Amino acid sequence: MNGAHDLGGMMGFGPIDPEADEPAFHAPWEGRVLAMEIATRNAGVPWNLDMIRSVREVADYAAAKRKSLLLENNVISPVYLAKAPANPLLMTDAREIVRFMKEVDKPNVGFLIDTGHTKVSGTALGYDPHAFMDAVAPYVRALHLSDNDGREDQNLPFDETAWFYPRLREFRHVPWVLEAYRLEDGTMKQQVAMLAACKAA
């Protein structure tokens, strides 16, 4: 592979040449790591052994540069969830986000909450977006703002009836990013004016 999504990949190693009668593990430590990984999953931990360590390392690097690290809540649609035996995506519900933040335990790590993702995931997983926001509020460092039909993430413009609009004033201290797509100039100006009025109130 050779592209933007081949994370960490390198070229030039030639073809894969499988060993005849290759052993399951080349060294004892490989079997032990697999056993720990399986035990972790069976204990209900949704992430693997390296995820928390990796986030802490990136957070420390960011802190040395006086930067923060923001993670975005994921989105699972009802259609996607219906095709999967269980929710395969991380950070779609509040309990997981809160647990993750407690385990990472770094002051410069927070969440960018996407309101469209929250609405769609709430429909798929059967939770109230307001309860989600109540739970994750201590970790919110920015907001992505858009609306949708609750079935898929459409990045539509919103108005005062959007589920999150009455709560925006609670998050005046964090940046807001309008993430609605393909807006006409008039609609864009209306969205910006509405947000400015909300922030000033």
SSE topology:
Elements: H1 28-42, H2 49-64, E1 69-72, H3 78-83, H4 94-104, E2 109-114, H5 115-125, H6 129-136, E3 140-145, E4 176-178, H7 185-200
Parallel strand pairs: 1-2, 2-3, 3-4
Helix pairs in contact: 4-6
How would you describe what is shown here?
This protein is α/β, with parallel strands linked by helices and 201 residues long. It has a domain at 66-200: Alpha-Beta Barrel (TIM Barrel). 41% of the residues lie in helices and 9% in strands. The chain has seven helices and four strands, in the order H-H-E-H-H-E-H-H-E-E-H. The protein has helices at 28-42, 49-64, 78-83, 94-104, 115-125, 129-136, 185-200, and strands at residues 69-72, 109-114, 140-145, 176-178. The chain has a four-stranded parallel β-sheet with strand order 1-2-3-4. Helix 4 (94-104) runs parallel beside helix 6 (129-136). The longest helix is centred in the first third of the chain and has 16 residues, at 49-64. It is elongated, with a radius of gyration of 21 Å.
So what's the CATH class of the domain at 66-200? Alpha Beta
The total strand number stands at 4
C-alpha termini separation: 52 Å
- N-to-C series of helices and strands: HHEHHEHHEEH
CATH superfamily of the domain at 66-200: Divalent-metal-dependent TIM barrel enzymes
Poorly predicted spans: none
Tertiary shape = elongated
